[in-house]
Amino acid sequence: MPFFVNIKSYLSKIKAKFPWTRFLLILSLVFLLAWLSWTPTGLMGKADAVGYAVCHRIDLRSFHLGDRQMPLCARCTGQYLGAMVSMLYLVIFRPRRTGRPPWIVIGILVLFAGFYALDGLNSYIHLIPQLSRFYLYPPGNTLRLLSGTGIGLGMGVLVSPAFNSTVWKRNDPRPIIEGPLDFGALLGIALLVDLLVLSGNPLLLYPLALFSAAWVLVLLTLIYTMVVVMVAKKENAYEDFRGMVLVVLIGFIIALAQVAILDILRYLLTGTWGGFIFG
Q1: Is residue 194 situated within a structural domain?
Q2: Is 232 a domain residue?
Q3: Is 101 helix (H, G, I), strand (E, B) or coil?
Q4: pLDDT, tens digit (0-9, with 9 covering 90-100), for 192-235
Q5: Separation of alpha carbons 111 and 117, rounded Å
Q6: Is residue 112 within a helix (H) or strand (E), and if so which, with residue range?
Q7: Range of the domain at 205
Q8: 3-state secondary structure of 42
Q9: Total domain count, the chain
């Protein structure tokens, strides 16, 4: 009982401080319910709809839960799982840090970005029959996963300090990554997650598939929350997430709207919830 009393008291304080919160909460729920009712059924169906907005979802370039394709292609799966691992690691072990990582870490992340671009270009060339003879090496989902993970780690290292320096009243100016050993620990965790994906075990792939799709919305929400904070000129005004209910709600609404609009446009273009088909 005390728990529910505390929740009620907290919501009352939020309502008094932000009178638009209830309206935005209702709006976000209505928008969410409309999106849920229109998109494919089931939890994985909703994850597919999120992936559908940001990923080509080509069947042969995706991992599978048995016969079922995962919500994101191999590269995007690595990208968003990498971003998830990176951002959770930094929230837990390097909270609210805003400082630039050492140059050696930046250099490694630049190499990861180069590998991402090279492997993506090589895969694209292999996809087009007229160009396929020019590919550099046989592409595969393992390399796509690894290249995506590398760029995902970089996304986390970029977004986390940007968010911290934008919203928090008290942040930590120390480097977001302290050095090679720190980055090595982060990289080791990311590679472990990749090994779980490559295991093909449905008991592991199912939650990882949901996490990868969910992190699309998490990233978009954080980015749009930063934009809302800057537009409202509320930079460095927040002590914790409890005080950010309003701006996070707005960020989530915009993120969900982007996903929904892209879903609608792609469905009108293709007439199917499936991935793009080539050949």
Answers
A1: yes
A2: yes
A3: coil
A4: 999 999 999 999 999 999 999 999 999 999 999 999 999 999 99
A5: 10
A6: helix 103-127
A7: 73-265
A8: coil
A9: 1
